[in-house]
Amino acid sequence: MVSILQYAWLIPLFPLLAFIVIVSFGRQLKEGAAIVGILLTGASFVIAALVFAGKFWWNAQDYKFNLEWLQVGDIFISMGFEVNQLNAMMVLIVTLVSLLVQIYSKGYMHGDERFPVFYQYLALFTFSMLGLVLSPNLLQLYIFWELVGVCSFLLVGYYFFKPEAKAAAKKAFIVTRIGDLGLLIAICLLFWWTGSFEYSQIFESVAFGRMNPWMVTLVAILIFVGAVGKSGQFPLHTWLPDAMEGPTPVSALIHAATMVAAGVYLVAATYPLFIASDTALTVVAYIGGFTAIFAASIGLTQRDIKRVLAYSTVSQLGYMMLALGVAGAAGYVAGTFHLMTHAFFKALLFLAAGSVIHAVHTQDVFEMGGLWKKMPVTALTFLIGCLAIAGIFPLSGFWSKEAILAAAFGAHRYDLLLVALVAAFFTAFYMFRLFFLTFTGEARGQHQAHESPSVMTGPLMILALLAIVSGFVNTPYAPALGNWLLDSAAGAAISMVFGEEMAHAAIWLQIAALAVSILGIVLAYLMYGKKSISPDTIPEIMPWLYQLSYRKFYVDEIYHHVFVRPLGWLGAGLNAFDRFVVDGLVGLTAKIAAGIGSLHAKAQNGQVQSYGTMVLFGLMLLVVAVTLLAQGGGFFAK
Amino acid sequence: MTVGLTSYLMVALILFCVGLYGALTKRNAVIVLISIELMLNAVNINLVAFSKYGLYPNVAGQIFTLFSMTVAAAEVAVGLAILIALYRNKETVNVDEMDQMKR
Fold first, then answer.
1. Least CA distance to A610: which residue of chain B?
2. Any idea which of A519-523, A526-530, A580-584 has the lowest mean pLDDT?
3. Other CB atoms closer than 10 Å to residue A262's CB: what's the count?
4. Which one, of A227, A492, A437, A222, lies nearest residue A335 by Cα?
């Protein structure tokens, strides 16, 4: 049977084509590069939508295509693509967000000198990300994993003439490399134990207990280390806020909606491996939970609008990890569901923030204010995004956050439930702090703000719509997405371990979650909207607490002193060794040769007579030597 | 009393050493050329001596000497020609100043 899924390989190829076209003709195309990028990404979005529809409504079979790539001994390493529930959803999200961001960038990047280069990178990133989610094996995934890392590096450092952007790009690349190393080791170990890179074969080996339990745990944790690096989880979260030095559409696409979700996707895609090890799941859950509350508490005090959003991203990714870590069908569904809704509302928030930055040319929220009247569309969509992320009924964030809480509750992880609730409170508070500071009150900066062009507000409105409605695909009363996601190989593996039952949310939990969010919003309103509570209350009572949060718990400083500087010293030491010892020896050898050479060069004075004298002395030496040898070697033999 | 091979060889040796000394130490290029002639003639004496007193005495050595002298004469002609050419260019016959090979 021919199904639409067989054409899924076209999805990543359109952005690749866009990349090639823009690389080849970028100079001629100028801002027309945007049209190329948008059209081709649009084409791949159409196919992705058809593929998703094929999976979702027409229940097409999973499709897998493999091409033999390499043969090593008896082992074949293959390349191909695979379509299942999880990655059908992912390609839809990635193509949709990428399409909207490219449309938006046409307005945002207008007039930029390196406009085509920007679209090159975006197209390459879209290609890599789609390739990543369609990979049927870990090796191919790893290749695309690194490719998205490179795109992230290029795009963070897009304004390379700014030293901060340069440093941030390097930091993003190096810090995620630490995680990638874990993933690489995990892949090597899996290949060693199972002889295959294929997901299906690896899961089979695990299910039949062909791997030691401790090895499964080790591999799962190492894969998680890769996810920690990419998804900005504690302790490798430091790169993500700095990555905000890139252009805002990039932050929306890469550092909020898609690439950073790759870590969550990786854990979800290799979920059968994780459920085989309780230890690994616990690690995932607690790292996720800690990151959620840790990043949220930093977000409370930041002044840069994009940094607040960045910490919010870190925190929400922690939420997803927490959901995946509390295990079972409910956690799996909640994590991936939150991934989807978060992609929409966080892209929305970033693009709206970009629209604000575009208008006021500053990122400091304390220099904004009073923009509600001047930029009504941006303000309204930003408000929708805030409501969604805060989890207000009936927006998408409410349903996905509630699903996570229900999963934690159903798994009797009350400590994690509490953490999630507190993080939800923080989230509601800092998002509305941002909203009130930016859009209400008096204008504090010197700027003539005006609404952005429709090419920018259009994507905002589409995303706002999605942020409102996308939650309804998986309400506790009609868990369409959940049932669909679990109707897969991964779902079968989960039900084998945890049984069939889905956790059913208690109604009081929904009310509690809502109450916590509303409390956060009200507090933010009182402090920054109505100003009946002075925002300086806490800094005055406990300045150290405020400083701790404002300084991001000094993690950057600690890393700087614990890792960066000792490594710097080590580097300086090795450099000195290289320069003085190794280079010294090489230099000495060269000097000796040169010295001997110049000594002999003096002998060449151009005078035949001195040459003759030397020849004579040489001959005499030879005669003496031969004579001594001829006398039975009396002199040389000893 | 017959003069033996050794005496001829000693004369040739002394002559050769005198020539060598002259060739290596004299400043005047003409003297150097003459010294080279002395060394050549020392060789000629050797050849003649061996053609008479050698292990297989025959006339080849003496004929060889004739060749050698002819070649030496030609060589001196060439050497003097070079010397004159040099003298015209550099106004000197001092060997110390002739170091064109270095450049």
1. B24
2. A526-530
3. 26
4. A227
Distance separating the N- and C-terminal Cα atoms of chain B: 57
Secondary structure, 3-state, A28-87: HHHHHHHHHHHHHHHHHHHHHHHHHHHHHCCCCCCEEEEEEEEEECCEEEEEEEEECHHH
Cα distances (Å, whole numbers) of residue A129 to A17, A170, A532, B51: 15, 20, 47, 99
Cα→Cα distances A632→A263, A330, A526, A590, A628, Å: 83, 98, 112, 40, 8
Kindly determine whether residue A616 and residue B20, on different chains, have CB atoms separated by under 8 Å: yes
CB distance A172 to A220 below 8 Å: no
B56: helix, strand or coil: coil
Residues 6 or more apart whose Cβ sits within 8 Å of residue A482 = A329, A330, A333, A337, A403, A474, A502
Nearest by CB to B24, from A604, A605, A609: name it. A609
Give A166-209 pLDDT, tens digit per residue.
889 988 898 888 889 999 999 999 888 888 888 888 888 888 87
**Residue in A with minimal Cα distance to B95:** A607
Q: Which DSSP letter does residue A245 get? A: G
* Inter-chain residue contact B101 with A612, CB threshold 8 Å: no
Q: Do A609 and B99 touch (CB under 8 A)?
A: no
CA distances from A604 to A614, A620, B102 (A): 11, 20, 7
The confidence band for A1, taking pLDDT boundaries of 50, 70 and 90, is very low
A489-498 and A199-207 are packed helices; what angle lies between their axes, rounded to 10 degrees? 20
Distance from CA of B48 to the nearest CA of A (A): 25
CB A272 within 8 A of CB A203: yes
Chain A closest-CA separation from residue B102 CA (Å) = 4
The torsion angles phi and psi of A81, rounded to 5 degrees, stand at -145, 160
Tally helices (H) and strands (E) across chain B: 3, 0
Q: Residue A282 corresponds to which tokens in the numbers above?
A: 């616990």
User: Which amino acid is present at A281?
Assistant: L
Nearest to B100 among A606, A612, A616 (CB): A606
Q: Are A97 and A347 in contact (CB under 8 A)?
A: yes
Return the bridge partners of A81, or none: A65
Contact A520, A429 (CB under 8 A): yes
* DSSP class of A109: T
- Written as six digits, the tokens of A609 are 């007579």
Among the partner residues B25, B32, B99, nearest to A605 by beta-carbon distance: B99
Dihedral, A267, A169, A297, A440 alpha carbons, nearest 10: -120
- Cβ atoms of A82 and A63 closer than 8 Å: yes
* Tokens representing residue A19 in the block: 């990349």
Rounded Cα–Cα distance for residues A354 and A110 (Å):
13
Residue B92, classified by CB atoms within 10 Å of its CB into exposed (0-12), middle (13-18) or buried (19+), is: middle
HSE-CB at A235 with a 13 A cutoff on CA atoms is: 8
| CA angle (A375 as vertex; A371, A378 as ends), nearest 5 | 105
B22-40 pLDDT per residue, tens: 999 998 989 999 999 999 9
Contact A608 B101 (CB under 8 A): yes
SS3 per residue for A553-573 = HHHHHHHHHHHHHHHHHHHHH
Q: State pTM to two decimals.
A: 0.78
